[in-house]
Write a structure and sequence with these properties.
38% of the residues lie in helices and 22% in strands. Strands 3-2-1-4-5-7-6 form a seven-stranded mixed sheet, with helices on both faces. The radius of gyration is 19 Å and the shape is globular.
């Protein structure tokens, strides 16, 4: 399962010591790199919700996906909602650059309460890996559902597969490094979830949770990003940033051999680093679940 949490670029609004300029750049780079995946997901979504008037990107970050939503649905007004005003500033600037600012707005506040500030019911509510930062995910989905217009769609991007950047055996260190990093991330994620305010353990059956909120499940589909080796400098920078975050967060939990391997992978002067080696790639899958409000 892929979570895309703090170590892969998601942010936690509870943190007050975040370097937003660094975080925003990583979030933007990641979302831009994953744009082909998101465009396919939004094209699929466009067959389910054909002419939405109001779209909300719940947990928008710096607005890359918010602007993609505006481009995919040219008749809609888009509102980016996030708890971090510095990220919303970047979202507004991006909308201006892309020529969609006249139908683009932002709303600062924590989910799901911030949605109460909306003036109108929502035709399409997009929540991309923001739900899992709410302690009570069932209540979060119910709150999302309550903001939908009749016939409105909730689209949850949760789950998928962890991103892969390297072959199993990279010629240095013990093979299987990324699988071991995945296991550490799973433990980190479970701890993050349990530490959230009002945390509730929940079976992550998203269609069932949507149905419990009174919505009718209309589809689940996974979308793949496949950027084979050799990669561009932009992809290499993203890979290095992602592995660097993992090194920062999990360094003390890694065995010394894996720490040494990561250090070599991150050293631009090392021929075996992700900056220079020819076999780096990006392979990932994100899963989207949709449901509609019928009543």
């Amino acid at each position: 399962m892929a979570h895309d949490h703090g170590t892969h670029g998601h942010h936690h609004h509870e943190h007050t010591d975040i370097d937003w300029s660094r975080m925003a750049q990583h979030l933007e780079t990641q979302a831009e790199l994953f744009t082909p995946l998101y465009e396919r997901a939004l094209a699929w979504l466009g067959h389910k919700q054909t002419e939405p008037g109001l779209i909300v990107d719940a947990g928008s970050g710096p607005g890359v996906l918010s602007c993609l939503l505006a481009e995919a649905f040219p008749g809609a007004r888009v509102v980016a909602v996030d708890g971090a005003e510095p990220l919303l500033e970047r979202a507004r600037a991006r909308a201006e650059r892309l020529g969609v600012a006249d139908r683009f707005g932002t709303l600062a506040g924590e989910l799901p309460g911030a949605l109460d500030e909306l003036d109108y019911p929502v035709d399409l509510l997009w929540a991309s890996r923001s739900l899992h930062h709410l302690g009570d995910q069932r209540a979060g989905i119910a709150a999302f559902a309550s903001r939908l217009a009749r016939g409105g769609t909730l689209a949850l991007l949760e789950g998928g597969l962890p991103a892969r950047f390297l072959p199993r055996d990279i010629g240095i260190g013990r093979p299987g490094l990324q699988a071991r990093l995945d296991a550490l991330e799973e433990e980190w994620f479970a701890q993050m979830r349990s530490d959230l305010p009002d945390s509730v353990a929940e079976v992550e059956d998203w269609p069932a949770l949507m149905a419990a909120a009174g919505l009718r499940h209309t589809g689940t589909r996974s979308f793949m990003l496949d950027l084979p080796a050799p990669r561009t400098d932009r992809a290499r920078a993203y890979i290095a940033a992602s592995l660097g975050r993992l090194r920062e967060v999990f360094g003390e939990h890694l065995e010394s051999g894996d720490r040494d391997t990561l250090d070599r992978l991150l050293d631009p002067e090392d021929a075996a680093s992700v900056h220079r080696r020819a076999d780096v790639f990006v392979l990932a899958a994100h899963t989207v679940h949709t449901a509609v409000r019928t009543g």
